[in-house]
Amino acid sequence: MKFVIVFVLAALLTACGASTPTKSEQEAVAPSAPLTGVVPTMADTMIAKADALFNVGRLLEPEQDNAYLYYRAALMLEPKSSTAMAGMQAIMLAELEKVNELMAKGRLAQAQRQLKQCSALFPGEPSVERVQVELDGLKKKRNLRPQATVKVAEPTSHIEVIKLDGADLRARNESVKSLLVGVALQIKHTHQGLMIYARSDAEGRWIYKQMREAVTGYRIRGDIRIGGPELHLLEPFE
Asked: Which candidate, 238, 234, 143, 235, places its Cα nearest to that of 197?
């Protein structure tokens, strides 16, 4: 994420500095009347872009064009910008609200994954730490170890294994998307369980997102684990 922010800054600074007029050129085109408006700074431009993305719900996605990215870039230029800080705070609260909703539904493992991402984006934030304490308390009530995902034994019989191509996943191309859509439709018909084995949590979430969107309104039941990449189709849940 930091690399992307630096890249955006570099691109904008290059664009702004590509054709700086000379003093004589500035005098030649100077307006006859003084300007009354204030010329926006680069940070102002970043904040305006971030506000626009925030208003359409693009808080953290897509990866290279989201509100968080531009607010962070603005703060790199003007660390004391109250507007940029307020924008970051609004994103953090929105992400924590998602965590609270998952906790209320008892989906603690998913809540922990969401909160882990939030902690990485907003390190040391008291609000994030308070939610973590609350989540740990809920885990203890269910005899779960804090910071750990529930370890559920996977059935050893009637498992259908579908191998996924690592290169296709990295490219996120149409080939792997079509495969995932087909598997999702099969699960909707058979009501099988799903275990996603992916090389990273982000990759696993992306796989699940493609399948969930393919069967809107149907809940695919399963979990994500590190491994593979492959899909395990389990016996239908009772």
From this structure: 234
Residue 222, helix vs strand vs coil: strand
What's the pLDDT tens digit per position in 67-120? 999 999 999 999 999 999 999 999 999 999 999 999 998 898 999 999 999 999
Is-contact 8 75, C-beta < 8 A? no
As given in the structure block, the two tokens for residue 147 are 């910071």
* Cβ-Cβ contacts under 8 Å for 161 (sequence gap 6 or more): 230, 231, 232, 233
Q: Calculate helix-pair angle for 67-77, 82-104, nearest 10 degrees.
A: 150
- Bridging pattern class, strands 193-198 and 222-226: parallel
**Contact assessment for residue 103 and residue 135, using Cβ atoms and an 8 Å cutoff:** yes
DSSP state of 36: -
As a whole number of Å, the CA-based R_g of the chain is: 24
Helix and strand element counts for the chain (H, E):
10, 4
CA distance 6 to 151: 39
DSSP secondary structure, 131-200, as one string: HHHHHHHHHHHTT--TT-----PPPSSSPEEEE--HHHHHHT-HHHHHHHHHHHHHHHHH--EEEEEESS
Give the separation between CA 207 and CA 172, rounded to whole angstroms.
Answer: 9
pLDDT digits (tens, 9 = 90+) for 204-232: 889 988 888 888 888 888 788 888 789 98
Q: For 214-219, which contacts have Cβ atoms below 8 Å and span 24 or more sequence positions?
A: 214/180, 214/181, 214/184, 214/185, 215/184, 215/185, 215/187, 215/188, 218/188
